[in-house]
Structures are given as C-alpha cells and as structure tokens.
Amino acid sequence: MVATNLKAETMKLMEKRSGLEVEMNVIIQRLCQPGGPGLSGNLLDSEGFPRADIDIPAVRADRNRLAELRNDHKDITEKIDANIQVLHSATLKPTTPHIINSGTNNQDSNISVSSSFGDSFTGSSSSSMDVDSVVGRPFAMIDEITEASPAAEDGLQLGDQIVKFGSVEIGDNLLQRLAAEAQNNQGQAVPLVVLRQGSCINTTVTPRPWSGRGLLGCHFRILS
Questions:
Q1: Is the dihedral of CA 198, 146, 123, 97 positive or negative?
Q2: Cα(62)–Cα(154) distance, rounded to whole angstroms?
Q3: Listed residue (86, 73, 72, 77) closest to 7, CA to CA
Q4: Is the pTM of this model over 0.85?
Q5: Do 207 and 117 meet the contact criterion of CB atoms below 8 Å apart?
Q6: Strands, E, within 67-147: which ranges?
Q7: What is the pLDDT of residue 98?
Q8: 2 pLDDT more than 60
Q9: Which residue has the higher pLDDT, 206 or 172?
Q10: What distances in angstroms separate CA 14 from CA 67, 72, 199, one per listed residue?
Q11: Residue 106 · residue 123 · CB < 8 Å
Q12: Measured distance CA(67)–CA(197) in Å, rounded
C-alpha cells in the first residue's frame, strides 16, 4: 500500500514537472525569438539607454518567471529522485533489463564531468517510472540549453529524456561514450531518440562548433 501511494505521488510529481517544462520552453522560445533579448542579453542599447525594440518589463517578468520555474523544477526533481530511490530499493530485481551497474565508478551520485568537447554531463539518481520497455529506458535528461546553441537550433527541449544518442544507449561509461559520440560526429547529424512529455520522438542533432562552449550547448543529466 505504501509503495502504491508513493508511486501515485511520484507520477503526479512527474506530471507537474512536465507542466513546468512546457511553460519553461514557451518562455525560452519567446525570449530567444529573432531580435529578442535572449535569456541574459543586455536590455540597454550601445549608448546605455533602455532598448526601444523590446518590451523591457515583459522581458524582466519572463526572466523572473523562468528563474522561479527552474527552482521549482529542481525541487520537484529532487522529490522524484528520493521517491524513486525508495521504490527501486523495494522492487528492483537483478534480472531487470537496462539497469546501470551500480558499481560503475563514473555513475556515482553527484558526479559532474566536463567532456573534452566542452558540453557538461552530471550524474544523478533520477529516472522515469512510466517508460515503455519497448522504446527503451532513458539514461539522461536535458536540464539546460544555451540560447542559439546547436541543441537549441536543432529543436531539443528542456526535459527531453534521452533514450538513444547515436550509438549510445543505457549502459556503463555513459559520460565518456556521450562525449566520444559527439566528438566523433562533428558536423554530422546524429540520430536521437527522446521521450518528450510521454511521447517517443525520433530526431537528429548535429554537434558543431558555435560561438559558445562545446559542440552542443546543452547539459545532460545522467539518470540511473
């Protein structure tokens, strides 16, 4: 009974988190539209006066709301992580497919790695409970995307859960494999399978140099 209630609570939290991600993406798209100020662009012109081509109060309101949503998203994710840890400890069996070996050194909680090509990956204990095993289990989630980056331009969204990135699927040494996959496919479209708001999406992303850091310009949070 306790496990059933905990699972129901976790599913509600996941639904709430999905709603936050939708609102966050709407704000990000609005701020990053052509001619827009972006997530952190200057609101003053070259002479130090408020820009006349944008609605500054609206931009500030959007940025403040986005910051609130990101904090709420973080809090909810931490609650989901804690609930899933309890559920997994009670129900996980050794024969369950697609489970990362808990003994893998580079998958320990709170690991933060910057790969050789500059994009960042963070180990964590979050996962999704309602993933169809036919599709595959997601192993990472995008929790940050830089404006005008390859990831943003290729249509990736906050909250996307990565099921397959090129040849990389759930398993060991995910951090190194993701970094190598992007590095080895510079300038080439990499097939990508993501779970987005409960739906399986097949898309591509092209790792490439741009004005910012790395080849993708997004942050992957490793799930376990």
A1: positive
A2: 23
A3: 86
A4: no
A5: yes
A6: 112-114, 120-123, 140-145
A7: 37
A8: yes
A9: 206
A10: 19, 12, 14
A11: yes
A12: 21
Structure tokens at 110: 């709170």
3-class state of residue 142 by DSSP: strand
> CA nearest 18: which of 120, 119, 160?
160
Tell me which CATH homologous superfamily contains domain 95-224: PDZ domain (2.30.42.10)
Alpha-carbon distance values, 8 to 15, 124, 130, 138, 160 (Å): 11, 22, 11, 20, 22
Q: Using CA atoms, how far apart are residues 195 and 193, in angstroms rounded to an integer?
A: 7
Structure token digits, residue 166: 């090129």
Q: Residues 135-164: pLDDT tens digits? A: 478 888 888 888 889 999 999 998 888 999
Using the structure block, give the residue that is written with the tokens 């639904």: 15
- CA separation for the pair 34, 38 (Å, rounded): 9
- Cα–Cα distance, 144 to 141 (Å, whole number): 9
Of the listed ranges 10-19, 99-108, 191-200, the least confidently predicted one is 99-108
Q: Establish how many alpha carbons lie within 13 A of residue 63's alpha carbon, considering only the half-sphere containing its beta carbon.
A: 16
Q: How does pLDDT run across 78-132, given as a tens digit for each residue?
A: 888 788 777 766 654 444 333 333 333 333 333 233 333 345 555 543 334 443 3
Cα maximum dimension of the chain: 65
